[in-house]
Structure formats: C-alpha cells, structure tokens
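Hi team,

Filling in the usual template for the complex we talked about on Friday. All components are listed, including any nucleic acid strands or ligand strings, so the model treats them as one assembly.

SUBMITTER: L.P.
PURPOSE: interface mapping
COMPONENTS: two
RESIDUES: 680
SEQUENCES:
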Amino acid sequence: MQEKVRVVVDAMGGDNAPAAPIAAAVDALEKHENLEVILVGREEVIRTELARRVKTIPSRLEIVHAEDVIEMAEPPVNAIRRKKQSSIVVGMNLVKKGEADAFVSSGSTGAVLVGGQLIVGRIRGIERPPLAPLIPTENGVALLIDCGANVDARSSHLVQFARMGSIYMENVVGIKNPRVGLVNIGAEEEKGNALVKETYPLLKECPDINFIGNVEARDIPAGVCDVIVCEAFTGNVILKLYEGLAGTLMKKIKGGMMSSLRSKVGALMVKPALKKTLKTFDVSEHGGAPMLGLNGLVVKTHGSAKSVEISNAIGQCIQFEKQHMNEKIKEHLIKEKENN
Amino acid sequence: MQEKVRVVVDAMGGDNAPAAPIAAAVDALEKHENLEVILVGREEVIRTELARRVKTIPSRLEIVHAEDVIEMAEPPVNAIRRKKQSSIVVGMNLVKKGEADAFVSSGSTGAVLVGGQLIVGRIRGIERPPLAPLIPTENGVALLIDCGANVDARSSHLVQFARMGSIYMENVVGIKNPRVGLVNIGAEEEKGNALVKETYPLLKECPDINFIGNVEARDIPAGVCDVIVCEAFTGNVILKLYEGLAGTLMKKIKGGMMSSLRSKVGALMVKPALKKTLKTFDVSEHGGAPMLGLNGLVVKTHGSAKSVEISNAIGQCIQFEKQHMNEKIKEHLIKEKENN
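RESULT (copied from the run log):
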C-alpha cells in the first residue's frame, strides 16, 4: 500500500478563491488514492462551495476552520504575527505539528514566505529556504532558484540552492543529472559581481551536482540548464520580466495581426495554434513554486491560479513526499558537513 | 550655420565590418550636412570598400589608418593596453585629443567600455560612466541605465545614472520630463536589497528628475517609465533576457504555426504583419548604446549591427552634440555639488 500524503490547501488564498482551491482539492482527491486533503478557511464558505460540487463530502477531505484571511496588500511579517486565526497561519501550523505534510496556497507571496520560515521552520543546517518556481523554456521547464523575499544572499546560500534545486529537479520533475547554471553577465569564470565570483569556485567543487558554469540571461529561455541558480533579487527580475515581456509581446503581435484585412483573416487561422504555444510559455501554467529546505513542504501557486494549476501543485506535494525529498536534502547536509 | 560634428567610426568592429560601418558613414554624410566622419581601420581595406560604393571619396570623409583589430574574445583590459594601433584605441585617442566629438563601434563591448574609461576618460565628478541602451517597450523605448561592465555599484552611482539618463532622454530622444524608475522586486519603498533601499530616498530627494518610484521587471516592457535605473548586473540580465526571450518566443510561435495545414496557411497571411511587429521589439533595432559621462561620446552598436543602425547611431552623436549633452551633464554636477 502507498504511503498516505496529507496536504493542507488554503481555501481563502488567491484571486479565484474559494472556488479554485476547493475544486482543485476535489479533483486531486479523485486522481490520487493515497491523498488526504485538509481545506483551511471559513468553514461555512467552504461547505457552501463544496456543496455546489459534490453530493457528500469526500471521505479523505477534512475541513479546518480559520476565521481570518491575510489580504494581498498586508505587510507579511505583521500579518503572520497578528492573524493567528488566518488560513495561512492555521494551515502552516498543521504542517509544523506534523498533522500534515505540505501546505499549498495562492495567497500573499510575502505571507507564505514569512510563514514558511517562522511557522514551518527551516531544516537544521539550511541557511535560507529559497522559493523556486519552474519557468518555461524552449523544450521544457527549468527551476529558477531563488525568487524569494530574502535578497543579498551569500555564496553559501547559493551553493545550498544549487544542491536542493538539483535534488528537486531529479526527484520531483524527473530530470536525470540536471544541469546547474549560475546566472552571470558573461560565460567566463572571472566575470560577474562579488557574489557570483565567490560562488563559482564553490559550485565547481561540489561533487554532487552537475555544474555547467555561468549562464547568461540570454540563454535561459533556450533551456541551456535545468537549475538556474541566482540570488533572489536577480531571480525576481528574471521571473517578472518573463511574465511582462511575454504579455507585452503577445499584445503587440495581436495588434500587428489586426493591422490589415489579410493578416486579420490569417490571424483567425493561426489563433488555435498560437494559443496552444502561448500556454506552454505561460509562467503561471507550470504548477506551484516550492519553498525548499523547510520542515515540511510549502508550495506557492500563482495569485491568479486556476483549479487545474492548484491540483497540479497538490500532485507535486505527493511526488515530493513519495521521493522523500526532505530526507534527501538532509542526507546532503550531512555529506556537506563531512566534506568540510 | 550649424556647428560641425566630427564622428569617428570604427571600420573594423562588428560582424558586418568593414561593409556595414563604411556604408553607414557614407549614408550619414549624405543625410547630415554638418557631419564629418573619420573612418578608422586598415586603410587599404577601407579604400577598397569605399571604392565599391562611391566614385570619389566624399569631402567630409577622412581615413585614419589603424593596423590592428581587437577581436571579440580578447580580454578587454589587455587588448586596450597592448593594441595601441587598433581601430578602437586609435579612434578613441582622436576623441581624447579633441580631434573628434564622438566614437561609434560595433566591436568588442568590453574593449569599448574599458577604452571609454581609460582613453576618453570620465568627466570630472562622474564616478562611473554607465552604458545605456534603449530597449523597446509597448509604445516606444526606454533607457536601461546601467548595462556596463562595472557591477556592484553604489547608491551615488545610481543617482548619477538617473540624472544622466534623464538628460539623455529629454535632449537626445526628445521625451519631455522623462519618468525615472528604480528596478526593484516590489513597488513599496521599503522593498529590495541594500543598494536599492539606500538609493530610493536619494532619488526621491533629487529636485531635477521625475522619479516615479520603484518599478518591477514585469512592468518594464509595458513602458511604465522612460529611464530604468539599475546596477549593471541587473541591467545586463534585463537586456539579455529581453533578447533571449523574444527570440525563443518567436521560434515557438513559428513552430506552433507550422503544426497544422490551417495554421500554415494563416501563417503566410500574418507573416508580413508579424515581421513588422517583431522588428519594433528587436533590441538591436534601437540604435546604439551611449556610454555617458565621458569627455566625449562613445556609442556602442550591436555586434550584428547593419549599416542602417550604425548610421542611426551616428545621427545620435549629432543630436548629442547639438544638444550640448556634456555641458548639461556638467551643469548638473555643479548643481549637485552646490546642493550638498
């Protein structure tokens, strides 16, 4: 028999809550026999929404009431400290107490990041837990690590990002011997700012990762590596420029196609193919971003995530547990210690 | 009568040299009556190429022989120091000695940046001369300042970038009261790394710029500001991701359109409109990147620049001189000193 995996889903977080997370929970339960879901949020809201979807509440679904909701604009540290009855705090406490394995939320990124650190807590030895979304590339996806809230990282943090990212891509995404690249402004070893110059030789010496050297931002979309290591400020710029540039380009392309009758007719014919292509290049389509290195898994889904994406994120949690990701991260920490 | 402007053009730099820079020189001379061009490079190569284009050498064109060429892959500092007879060193020396106003090259970016600092030299009071390309946005262009080779900038550098960028956009590109944004990972003042947190209040207090606050990378392509202020590492990531993402997206879109007969027919019909749209979003289409804050102007054109882009860059130099850009930068430095 498969091991049970218990995932807490924030029923109140994101633009499409509560409908999207609740539909995702129902969908994921149908797909995964070994899954148990705990929906956290206002009980009456959850019950009403559930009643619209299922006749009886599924046996592997539990509801845990949380009166408060952390709004997107609230300062994260304050919100986590004060709103003890919010869905994020209540949900994360379930993970902390070992009553659940993972927590999935489309709510405030800041609050999820702060809660991950303050409530769920870091694995002993992990200096900084990174947020690591998958971003689309020409032929697949790559893990962008770190996009979190903690900027001004040190080189030792980046080395841990490279290690955890490799373990994640190999075990959860299924890419053998993932190629690790360090974001830099040139390909040569001596290029870059103080941080990357210090990090490069450390990564080169790591025996347990497949370090391919510096990667320039130009080559990231082509899929030159599977694990893109960078400091959070740079990661955030990359992630957000991906979103913004794809959006603006599409707007321009659509506008351009509407500029003549001939291209208007053509546009109608290419529309389905174009739509499909763009979907593969939408940052929000690639499941949730795991926050790695915590005592339990926290997954942040896009604020505008629909039920299918949240359901995929729940699937990621199952894979994460099945592969004993955190045990593998801990093994690496022990090896790291032995090597030093 | 208009003031004469003397521009040195590196005849040996870039993928399309010597044809592209020489054609650009001839074209620019036809367009601008007050222009004088000095072509620097191997004299016999220049004469042969010129003979293919014009019957007699134009009266406002001079050839200055330079035996050496700095290759793209050469370490810049070494190349500038050792190759005294290279087109870049000989050309920049003409600017230094006051025999020319500006230098345009499609050669090695590193060598142009190093040469700009070591040979042409900084304006007294300028701490660091930034490289500032124009990047395409939804409705126009924005100046990305700095994309240079000197990373790990200080906040005082960023303030000078904001000032010089504003003067450039207002006077050379013709945008009244240009909006200045600071690249950050959130819109709020308290967000960011140590550098931007220190820079934000300084920019807020600048009386002579139109500071609109933090900008996220997501909003850059939409054209949220005219002067994008950032440290060179971040600027380099933005510039190169712009190039890479646009390229990959187009490849995906083209591939997607070829996936069915229906979309293939449609693709033929939208092709001209699509091509036009993409041209407006090509980073290399927007003239040269000026290196600001030097005793003279240095403009770096894309390595793959064609003659039309180089000719446009020569046009930029004329506008730069006509607007007395460097005098304006110096005036600002005096004001800055008085305010402190």
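MY TAKE: The mean pLDDT of chain A is 92. The longest helix of chain A spans residues 232-257.

Thanks, L.
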